[in-house]
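Memo to structure team: turn this sequence into structure tokens by end of day. - J.P.
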Amino acid sequence: MSFPEVSERLSHEMPTWFVREKRVVAYFVADHHDDGYLGFMCPAPDGVQAELIEAEPDRFYRPPYFGHRGWIGVHLAEDCDWDEVREILLDAYRKVAPKVLAAQLEAGK
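Reply from structure team:
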């Protein structure tokens, strides 16, 4: 919510974050399709999805419905690195936000 013009609302009964009300930044998932995981899905920079899944397949996955678009699924474990989560979400925001908003983020506004 600290990123420029981000709003939150439910989508498919899960918290979902948008920029300018239409571009999805992240989609929270809890036991999605009874998989037992808590996490989120978000867009990733080009090529990053495969790199993350290959490097850490227990933490990252290709999510259904969104994976073909390069999105990543992120499992949130008890010992989660929240700085890393913030960086993943920053990358997602940069990917979907209009350039003027991404520039505001970079300028620290």
